[in-house]
Write a structure and sequence with these properties.
The chain is mainly beta. It has a domain of 79 residues. It has 2 helices and 12 strands; from the N terminus they run ββααββββββββββ. Strands 1-4-5-6-7-10-11-12 form an 8-stranded antiparallel β-sheet, with no helix packed on it. Strands 2-3 form a two-stranded antiparallel sheet. A two-stranded antiparallel sheet has the order 8-9.
Length: 199
């Protein structure tokens, strides 16, 4: 099975944010203040403050993307899957410093395999990769690094009980990564549980 799609979106009055330098006493910021970085201004502990205002973009904002998914059943014990996605936002016409909060990797993909082993055992293995990208939050802006994880599980099906005993984990190789700027590092997570199929 092959699935291919493409999209293009056009936004008017796109909502984003713009940051400004201001003074607590209402006075006009100096040229030196306007030229300094946000970190320098915050460390100074002076009358200066950073203001963030939600605003609509006057220009049309365009996004586009594509996705490709492939699934191939080699045999009952093995199905190979893969998917890739591309996401873009065009910022060329936006004012300098306009924050779009388009916190999406440009490139990401998955590679996996799953199937039925023996009579009652099933499994799934999946590798995920995402490209590092700019991540904008109201309180912080930064760049995430590329990150990847390996997820897998094995299950044993009990037919008469309509139940599957499952053991698995995400990020099995403990490749710590951050998927939200300012968020925690995500490490290995293992689990065991029951899946009950209610007929």
């Amino acid at each position: 099975m092959v699935d291919v799609n493409y999209f293009r979106s056009y936004y008017n009055d796109f909502i984003g944010a713009q940051r400004f330098v201001g003074n607590r006493d209402g006075s006009r910021p100096s040229a030196q203040q306007l030229g300094a970085s946000a970190a320098t201004l915050q460390m100074a502990g002076s009358n200066t403050r950073i203001l963030q205002v939600w605003t609509n973009a006057r220009q049309e904002v365009q996004t586009q993307g594509a996705a490709l998914g492939v699934s191939y059943n080699v045999a009952r014990p093995l199905t190979i899957t893969a998917n890739y996605s591309l996401n873009l936002i065009e910022k060329d016409k936006l004012p300098e410093g306009f924050q779009t909060f388009f916190n999406t990797p440009k490139h990401k993909y998955n590679l996996g395999a799953n199937g039925l082993l023996a009579k009652h055992f099933n499994y799934s293995v999946n590798y995920r990769w995402a490209q590092g990208h700019l991540y904008e939050m109201p309180f912080a802006v930064g760049t995430l690094q590329d990150y990847s994880t390996v997820d897998a599980y094995v299950g044993y099906v009990i037919p008469k009980a309509y139940t599957t005993i499952q053991v698995g984990g995400s990020n099995l190789f403990n490749a710590t990564n951050t998927q939200v700027y300012g968020g925690p590092n995500i490490g290995r997570l293992v689990f065991a549980g029951l899946l009950i199929d209610i007929k």
